[in-house]
Amino acid sequence: MTAEHVSKFMIYLKQLKEWNKTTNLTSIVKDEEVVIKHFIDSIAAIKAESFIDGSLIFDIGSGAGFPGIPIKILRPDLRLVLVEPSKKKSSFLRYIIGLLKLRDVDIFEGSLEQFADNFINHEQANYIVARGIKFEFIIDLSRTILTSNGRILLFLSTLVDRSRIGSKTIVENEYSFDLPIGYGTRVVTSLSLSS
Asked: Are 57 and 78 in contact (CB under 8 A)?
């Protein structure tokens, strides 16, 4: 991680806390917890998956930008679409993207269903990332918005229950790691969809 990366994360942290005073972005507000539970958890995707240069990522239910923005900070070559239904959270996302001068980032203000319904002229994603959303829901809608060799990355607290993912969903990798200072175990699960 470079000094520029650290600087962007510090700006992100400061603005997240400032905006959170008036907009419910996250219940996690202590600096240490934001760094560990949001930033470190999000960038674990880079260890879990070898993102192809220039790939397109859809961050579903982005909220305050997790995991998409931390991934983008460390991998500026990646293209990102943040899908977020909340107007207030989308406003924060627009603000922080501009402040951090992140390029090739778009925001879709709406639900995943609305995004999928309006998808006709959009390029399919190489990756879909999601935290805190029921993964069965994402798997169902991913077939139309994900390339045939694309991956879904789920950020979970346990290994995925394979009986819940369906017979046409393949677990490609499960990257398990411990968050620092005893904040628990996390798993980034990489899924692919068979025909």
From this structure: yes
Vertex 137 angle, CA 44 and 53, to 5°: 40
Q: What is the pLDDT of residues 35-75, one digit of tens each?
A: 999 999 999 999 999 999 999 999 999 999 999 999 999 99
> What's the CATH superfamily of 3-193?
Vaccinia Virus protein VP39 (3.40.50.150)
Amino acid at the residue 108: F
**Segments making up each domain of the chain, as ranges:** 3-193
Q: In angstroms, what CA-CA distances link 193 with 81, 161, 169?
A: 20, 16, 5
* Distance (Å, whole) CA 106 – CA 127: 15
The C-alpha atoms of residue 56 and residue 19 are separated, in whole angstroms, by 28
Contact in structure between 119 and 96 (CB atoms under 8 Å): no
168 φ, ψ (degrees, to nearest 5): -100, 15
Residue with token string 């470079």: 2
pLDDT at 69: 98
